[in-house]
Write a structure and sequence with these properties.
The protein contains no helices and 11 strands. With about 120 residues, the chain is mainly β.
Length: about 120
């Protein structure tokens, strides 16, 4: 069983920065994908950034060049550094751990609110 705990959300002005962190308890393997999704009010859940099970990174086009994801396998953590934030980045951000080859690997954090004011 894996539990994910996020931290670092909050209220920031447009153009500002925030850093989200997620710590996973339990056993995480290097083949697990780890990343961040978000859901804005009235919108679908979308991928923000992730480390794939193959170790590469994926970013949503809307955050490329502004967000940076990092991962520390020794500490079971994944971090999202968000810069040049825009009001449209406002959402609940969720940490996710998965493994596409096995649907049983599908863990989500409780979510952390990010609000960007204009």
């Amino acid at each position: 069983q894996v539990q994910l705990v996020e931290s670092g959300g909050g209220l920031v002005q447009a153009g500002g920065s925030l850093r989200l962190s997620c710590v996973a308890s339990g056993t995480i393997f290097s083949f697990n994908s780890m990343g961040w999704h978000r859901q804005a009010p009235g919108k679908q859940l979308e991928l923000v950034a992730e480390f794939t099970s193959g170790g590469s990174t994926n970013y949503a086009d809307s955050v490329k060049g502004r967000f940076t994801i990092s991962r520390d396998n020794t500490k079971n953590t994944v971090t999202l550094q968000m810069s040049s934030l825009k009001p449209e980045d406002t959402a609940v951000y969720y940490c996710h751990v998965g493994f596409p080859a096995d649907p049983a690997w599908d863990y989500w954090g409780q979510g952390t609110q990010v609000t960007v004011s204009s």
